[in-house]
Amino acid sequence: MTDVRDTKTLTLDGALKVLNAAITEATRIGQPMCIAVVDTGGNLLAFGRMDGSKGLSVTSSINKARTSALSGVPTGGAHADVEIQVTLAHESRWTNLIGGLPIRVDGFILDAVAAGSGSGMQDLAVARAGAVAIPRADMYLDFKPMGAEDAGIIRGTTPQPTI
Fold first, then answer.
1. pLDDT by residue (tens digit) across 89-135?
2. How many CA atoms does the CB half-sphere of 54 hold within 13 Å?
3. What whole-number distance in Å separates Cα of residue 54 and Cα of residue 3?
4. Residue 145 to residue 93: CA distance in whole angstroms
5. 108-136 burial string, b = 16+ CB within 10 Å, else e?
6. Top-confidence residue, 64 or 161
7. Does residue 71 fall inside a structural domain?
8. What's the mean pLDDT in 159-163?
9. What SUPFAM superfamilies does the database record attribute to this sequence (predicted)?
């Protein structure tokens, strides 16, 4: 056993690459965003608020990034039945809103990126575009949102497939 473990993290240059790639995607889809990049402790490394983005998305995008960094999973994956309780238990710093993505490379969570101001799926697409700026970053393509933000989810019920 050892008292030290290997860790990896983005440099400021790496965080700025993530931020700029996310801004490029938000511009491409025509949706101004607030974009946050945080370290694995949830501390802000880089942030951008595009002209025309929502002021309330400043806090939510930082919380999305923080949640992803600390949990190691994309935001929006907790079931709607527990999201309010978990948010309260974490003093409103945890969120289940879609759009936060850990930046994982070769099994290491380096940091996290999140976007806010669009729909959940737009936010996730912009976060993925940011993460892809880091070679070999996991895009979490098998991620399935489960929160109240997702269409068709009603608390206490299971969504029925449409035919």
1. 666 677 889 999 999 999 899 999 999 999 999 999 999 999 999 99
2. 12
3. 45
4. 19
5. ebbbbbbbbbbebebbbbbbbbbbbbbee
6. 64
7. yes
8. 53
9. GlcG-like
